[in-house]
Amino acid sequence: MREAIIKSSETIEELKLEAKQSLPSLYGVGGTAIGGYEALPQPEPPYLPPAKDPYGYTLVLDLDETLVHYYESGGEGSFRIRPGCEKFLKEMSELYEVVIFTAAMQDYADWVLDSIDKPGYISYRMYRQHASPKGMVFVKDLSRIGRPLEKTIIVDNVAENFSRQPDNGIFIKSWFDDMSDTALLELAPLLKCKLALLILFRNRRKKMQRRQGGFEKFQRPDVRPTRTWRKIAQT
Ligand SMILES: [Mg+2]
Predict the structure, then answer these.
(1) Helices (DSSP H) in 59-161: which residue ranges?
(2) Is the pTM above the cut of 0.85?
(3) CA 137 to mean position of chain CA atoms
(4) Domain regions of the chain by residue span
(5) Which residue among 62, 117, 141, 156 is the active-site one?
(6) Is residue 62 annotated as a catalytic residue, yes or no?
(7) In CATH, 2-181 is 3.40.640.10
(8) Consecutive sets of 10 residues in the chain, 235 residues long: mean pLDDT of each?
């Protein structure tokens, strides 16, 4: 297991160098996101069981170079944790259903996640087998996870990973070892605000739908308009 991690890490380091030279910086050089690895058979969607809270919102988080960075030292594989990671996961789990979607292999990801998420802030984990290979990247197709797109946000350090649903994606800069990094601390208020906006728009959309329903009913010849509908039609 450890050898496999170290071996894949070596390949990743080579690919990072290659990626640095050939890709625009926006695409990041995330360890697991770029590399043209062998794809795994994809399970049938939906990947996640039904949400515990049907009215809740889902936050999909990438792992490598978003929350942690894997490295090796003296032949030992290890990883660093991005500053603010635990606080971020704790705060987000109070607002969202938090799920991890990584293009990394399951063994490696579980090893990292079991260590960084002892309190259990993360509800579900998705791995390389859940990602859709597209050229040199694994795309994280949110339409396959089993959550309504209008209630799902993905945060990833590789913009191409959410290229199927760019409107759902928030790009975060790649993190390797800068302990003065504040990206997660800065992202938390944005996601709190975003949730408030999403709920606001959802309520507004429902109101609009109710109104449209009212109009349609109003136009049906077999239904006589009531005073309430007339009032709605005037607003
Ligand atoms: Mg990444």
Answers:
(1) 85-95, 106-116
(2) no
(3) 16
(4) 2-181, 194-233
(5) 62
(6) yes
(7) no
(8) 56 60 42 56 95 93 97 92 98 96 95 97 97 88 96 94 92 96 94 80 68 50 50 48
